[in-house]
Amino acid sequence: RSIKTELSRQKDAVQFKLLKSRLNYNPIISRQKDKTETCSGFFLHWSLFTLRQFPQLLFSVNGGRIGPTIIAKYNQLIVADVYNLINDKENPDNSNVSMHWHGMHQFNTPWMDGVGMITQLPTKPRDAF
Fold first, then answer.
1. pTM > 0.85: yes or no
2. Which of 48, 69, 100, 122 is surrounded by the most beta carbons within 10 Å?
3. Could you tell me which residues come within 8 angstroms of residue 71 by beta carbon, excluding any fewer than 6 positions away?
4. What is the dihedral of CA 123, 124, 128, 129, to 10 degrees?
5. Residues 106 and 76 sit within 8 Å (Cβ to Cβ)
6. Quick one: which of 37, 127, 26 has its CA closest to 80?
């Protein structure tokens, strides 16, 4: 290893630690050698967050404000299960959700874009997609 590579790795590790403490950053990293990886367990529900000193109920993914990052190999197939655990009894239409996948190009799969009632039907409460 060169010194430059080692310094770069140390710098990345420091940045990762900063992100982890600020954003509850928990990436899902593929360790499979084949082309299929199952990333099950994207649970959507209400969570209490304090933003600018004010507690607020917000949608969360696995308890965090930001969903986990999926890190996979080039051309690897990702299978993700999304579970809607949101149940708003006062406003049931507010309980339907869809998931948008930032950074993942959807070729010939427009129903995976995450725009509810436009490119896909939203996932109802206590249902999975």
1. no
2. 122
3. 27, 28, 29, 30
4. -10
5. no
6. 37
CA distances from 22 to 9, 13, 18, 51, 58 (A): 20, 14, 6, 12, 17
Please name every residue paired with 60 in a beta bridge, in sequence order, or none if there are none.
45
In three-state secondary structure terms, 127 is strand
**Residue pLDDT, tens place only, 61-101:** 888 887 777 777 777 777 788 899 988 776 666 788 888 77
Give the closest residue to 79 by CA, choosing from 30, 27, 121, 24. 30
Question: What one-letter code names the amino acid at 64?
Answer: G
Q: What domains are defined for the chain?
A: 29-128 (2.60.40.420)
The tokens for 78 are 């990702």
